[in-house]
Amino acid sequence: MCIWRKILSQSNTLLEGYENSFWTCSVSKLGYSGTAIISQIKPLSVRYGLGISDHDSEGHLVTAEFDTFYLLSAYVPNSGDGLRRLLYRITEWDQSLSNYMKELEKSKPVILTGDLNCAHEEIDIHDPTGNKRSAGFTNEERHSFGTNFISRGFVDTFRKQHPDVVGYTYWGYLHGGRKTNKGWRLDYFLVSESIADKVYDSYILPDVTSSDHCPIGLILTP
């Protein structure tokens, strides 16, 4: 099975053959966040958000249940300019999402994909020294990512498959980051440990340039 996280354009061609689509977006901040799952296979069930009103008004999560796993498409809240949402991110959102995933995991494995807004390790960012207090690479965010996801048994599939590869999924527009490859790895596939050995490949497609992010892919063996 091949799973893609695509950055959607206005073109409908990305939807051909994918008859099952599920979308959510922010109702509190128009034009902000939003997530989707588009599938050739009809899910057994679909739910939106975490079931926590403080988190769910921004459209950060869609969950689709399939026969052998749950697939979660997420946009993790950015800590923002001046790190104004850092405490919300690390003390509320990350823990709530992690707890939700562990609850789902009681019935079947979990796959989480999306812009998780954290470059977890120094290899995941072009300038680790200069970005120590940048949203997405603070010590607090990196510790929270490790504590709430990696230490709780969710495997970073790209890093497991390619432990020493420098691969970025986001390049800021402001300073022409694409041209100089000054990027960040913010987009992930995390999977439950129980299916980590079924990951045939987890990869990045940096040459797709329709966004400041690029697509990533995951291939699972049967």
UniProtKB/TrEMBL annotation:
The active site is at Y75, D115 (proton donor/acceptor), H213 (proton acceptor). Residues 26-213 form the Endonuclease/exonuclease/phosphatase domain. Mg(2+) 2 binds at D212. GO terms for cellular component: nucleus. It holds the Pfam family Exo_endo_phos. One of its GO terms (biological process) is base-excision repair. The record marks D187 as: Important for catalytic activity. InterPro entries: AP_endonuc_1 (IPR004808), AP_endonuclease_F1_CS (IPR020848), Endo/exonu/phosph_ase_sf (IPR036691), Endo/exonuclease/phosphatase (IPR005135). Gene3D superfamilies: Endonuclease/exonuclease/phosphatase. GO terms for molecular function: DNA binding; DNA-(apurinic or apyrimidinic site) endonuclease activity; double-stranded DNA 3'-5' DNA exonuclease activity; metal ion binding; phosphoric diester hydrolase activity. This is DNA repair nuclease/redox regulator APEX1.
